[in-house]
Amino acid sequence: MTGGEPADREPLSGPDNSWLRMGDRTNLMTITGLLDFDDPVSYEAVREQLRERLLPFKRFRQRVVYENTPFRRPRWEVDEQFDIDCHLHHVALPEPRDKAEFQQFVGDLLSQPVDHDKPLWQAYLVEGAGDTGNALVMRIHHALGDGFAMLYVLLGLADDPGEINLPFGGVPSPPDHATDDGSTTPGSPSAREDENRGRDDDGPGALAALSKAPSMLVRGASAAKIGIESMTLPEEPASAVNGDLGLEKQAAWTAPIDVDRAKAVGRAFDGTINDVLLATTTGALRRYLETHDGAVDPDAEHRTAIPVNLKPLDQRDEQLGNAFGLGFLQLPVGIDSVQGRIDEISDRTGALRQGTQAWLMLTLLRTVGNLPMPFQDLALWRFRNRASSVITNVPGPTDTFHFAGTEVSDMMFWVPTSQGVGLGISIFSYDGDVRVGIASDAGLVDDPNELTAAFEEEFETIAEQVGVEAVAADD
Fold it and tell me: Which tens digit of pLDDT belongs to each residue from 92-134?
């Protein structure tokens, strides 16, 4: 927030503005998340829970207002006409109310923009989603925050966020939902905002970490090399999963895969669960390409963009925002050997985890987001069509939690894409299981269930190869 700016009006940060401007008719830049309930939750309970738990995050009561000059960033401004009933919708799936109908519903949502004249989110309580319960589907524009910010928001909706266990730490306390009078208490997100006002909070930890490197010269030379390589990536070759985008999107998701079983497979290949899931994704893409493009060249690779978080979840606050960068990963779809794929992926993700490429991308987005739109277009055109997919892999809560007194039986996400990418793959774990969500452009992948089926088949093939048996279903 700049000095003299009213408390209810603040400019978008550079990265938030960049993601706001990256959206177009074929890439709507919305993150879609799902809370599934085996026992139905009522509309009234959902409405009250969102009023008490979501609206204290001020971004959900603010809309984007544009300035009259291109040299000033748009600003967040409280919507004086805000009405939660314009954002929360109660719908029912048509008969036969099966998974296919629910996938079609989610796909239709992925094809529709949120209203930019209102706060940039929508929620749908969907009856008939599941055998006995219902589901809450939320759509949030990327300008509000990245995937970790949205995870913070969704987990903050829990009846008791303090009881949620994550593999990488706890959930920070959500904004005080007992008051809405603008007051602050020591240690609250609003108090931290007051303390840090005027500072750049778009991921400064990455810069601090870089400054503490043992050799600034070596790190600087490495960053320059990576930056040049990133800016000079060749376009992805034509394939069944890339090309011109349209307006219609599709959604699908896999059956649950036991986390412990996936870890056991990883140990058998001297790798990690992340290596196994990415190798399985690579094998699924290989199967899909073989079906639609024919034989896959042994040297073929599929370049994907991987979001890399640069601001830990426990440092998130009600400002939300985008504090991640993108790294590019070559998936060796031409390698038939599972061990060969895992070894290659392990080596390549090791470099990606260093975060230099992601930090450079965040720095670029922060910079161009503070400049007029033509400068952003000029800077980012070099990245258009440089990847064929976006893949996220986020570990979620290790146990179930409750929302409005009802147990959340499952969670899923669908990642947005940009810069001409038409395929999003979201790997997310919850309560001991992993699911993979697919969001695709209908003109490229018209039936994403082919990809989810390929993922399931590939994982079973890999598990059988090392003798890791399926886990018996609960009675």
Answer: 999 999 999 999 999 999 999 999 999 999 999 999 997 789 9
Residue type, 448: P
Sheet-wide strand order for 9-11: 9-11, 75-78, 62-65
List, in sequence order, the alpha helices (H) in 197-322: 204-211, 216-231, 259-268, 273-293
CA 328-331-334 angle, 5° bins: 150
CATH class belonging to 9-465: alpha beta
343-350: Cβ within 8 A, 24+ apart: 343/271, 345/271, 345/275, 345/278, 345/279, 345/282, 346/271, 346/272, 346/275, 349/274, 349/275, 349/278
Domain ranges (residues) in the chain:
9-465
Q: Rounded to the nearest 10 degrees, what angle do helices 356-369 and 14-22 cross at?
A: 80
Residue 221 burial by Cβ neighbours in a 10 Å radius (0-12, 13-18, 19+)? exposed
Structure tokens at 367: 């910079």
Q: pTM of the predicted model, to two decimals?
A: 0.87
Rounded Cα distance, 13 and 144, in Å: 10
